Amino acid sequence: MLQINSSIFYILYSIFLFIIGLFLGSFLNVVADRLACEQTLGGRSKCDTCKRKLSWIDLIPIISYTSLKGKCRYCQASISIQYPISEIATGVVFTLTWILSQNAYPSASVWLHFVHIAIASLIFVIILTDLRYQIIPDEIHIALIIVGILRFLLLNSPVQTSLFFSLLNFMLIQKFGMMLVAGMAVMLPLLLIFLITKGKGMGFGDVKFAYIIGFLLGIKAGLIALYIGFVIGGIIALFLMILQKAKLKTKIAFGPFLIIGFYIMLFFQMDLYSFINSIYGF
């Protein structure tokens, strides 16, 4: 009976997270567009065509878009389908992030799982801005560093006993310094590409995001995440060229591929290491 109740609670909680993700997805769409256009985050949403301010009934995720048949209530201008799709995607990402975080860090504080959801939210903004405008706003990098520090403290909080507190505090500072160095080490390959190609082969937003990856994951996991991003990005680019959807000089957003590598190493790091060890025996 207890197991059944636990399963029902787990399902209901997942549904709750999905719904929260839907509403936050609508907000993150606004954040992405306003940051990319260097607008303030305050103020009500408005129609891009007629500039009419939207009421709350126009902003209900999925429902508003469906009931209005994908058009503005006031001027009948078409609303891009990317908005409901991104709302659904946010709901799915929220739910999966919570589940994967619990599986990857079973003994961690519940606050760590919320931090991972916060990271997922910020990364979702990166995906939207990179795909739509091929930029990654500095505000998101700063927010990720702040959230990354919170994650570091949750994973490395010392036991504050009178005998060992000073030593542990020193070790904490030392470990934090290693995170800063890891960020620079992971950023270096993309920085070199950026400098050599004079910004044509790599956007500086991707360079800065590589620093975030190293800062959050460490040198080893960060470099592997970078490698995974390059491999997946290369495969997709090759596939697009075969289909004649892209050419060698076609610009393709690299941020989403870096994010895939980051997520794999964030939640499947130990599984990947075990898989590599089983093949190569090291």
Q: What would your notes on this structure say?
A:
The chain is mostly helical. The chain has a domain at 163-282. The protein is 72% helix and 0% strand. The chain has helices at residues 2-36, 63-67, 82-104, 110-133, 138-156, 165-196, 204-217, 219-242, 255-280. Helix 4 packs antiparallel against helix 5 (138-156) and helix 6 runs antiparallel to helix 7 (204-217). The longest helix has 35 residues, at 2-36. The protein is globular and about 60 Å long.
- What is the average per-residue confidence, as pLDDT, rounded to a whole number? 83
Question: Approximately what portion of the residues adopt beta-strand conformation?
Answer: under 5%
Number of strands: 0
Q: Regions with pLDDT < 50 over 5+ consecutive residues? A: none
In whole angstroms, the N-to-C terminal distance is 45 Å
Specify Rg, calculated over alpha carbons. 21 Å
Content-based structural category: mainly alpha
Please provide a brief summary of the model:
This is Prepilin peptidase. With 282 residues, the protein is mainly α.
Topology of this structure?
Layout: H1 2-36, H2 63-67, H3 82-104, H4 110-133, H5 138-156, H6 165-196, H7 204-217, H8 219-242, H9 255-280
Helix pairs in contact: 1-3, 1-4, 3-4, 4-5, 5-7, 6-7, 6-8, 7-8, 7-9, 8-9
